[in-house]
């Protein structure tokens, strides 16, 4: 993607991921960063939806990144005629609506995916406000021919209830050292930190990797990249949070957020999920049990 000068009057970008890429490129403290495909569209929950729709909105963001995958687009388009009896069941710019996702998950259950989870939800989602999470995302994607892997971090892997292994997994997924991470993680026997060969290439890297679905107790996010900070070595997940209101200017007039270091930092704040955020004293953790399940779901470029 061609970089544009921050001094021009306005700057429109095609997606929030493209905006994040330019923001981290302009951040003097970023040593390296990796971003997923720019095709991800942002899906934000309305105020009245925020208590139950995060799973659906993240599913919609995952689906938006899959438009070029033939098995996915064919499966979605072939089932659209079955939605006549589902209120609100439709595609918006190729992305299924919440009602459509509910119907697709029910269809996955009927295909035999996650019978236990289906039973817990009484085999019914359409027209309800029932939450969905990792197992429903897994069933949905596999039923549409998308291979999905789930990595579960049931307990902290660092001091103060931190999750460095989770951050390692995300970093390796985006930077190409995933095989080395998986080998080290499988052989770790719960001994951390992990020792594996990491990609040390500095700079901002735009990749064609698909986004990750990140579930922790009470909420879920879409991970679109990772950022490593110069000097301290701290890492930030770069996320799209359905519950965070992102101003239209992020894509329609990004130049206003690139004027100076303060503007860049302020704009990045709404996309950063720092490594410290899952520690016991953080706002994310303080009302949660000490032993917290964190689950990362990866969509693969391979499909049936």
TrEMBL record:
It comes from the Eukaryota. Keywords: Hydrolase. The keyword Hydrolase applies. One of its GO terms (molecular function) is hydrolase activity. Residues 32-256 form the UFSP1/2/DUB catalytic domain. InterPro entries: UFSP1/2_DUB_cat. This is UFSP1/2/DUB catalytic domain-containing protein. It comes from Chytriomyces confervae. The lineage of its organism: Eukaryota, Fungi, Fungi incertae sedis, Chytridiomycota, Chytridiomycota incertae sedis.
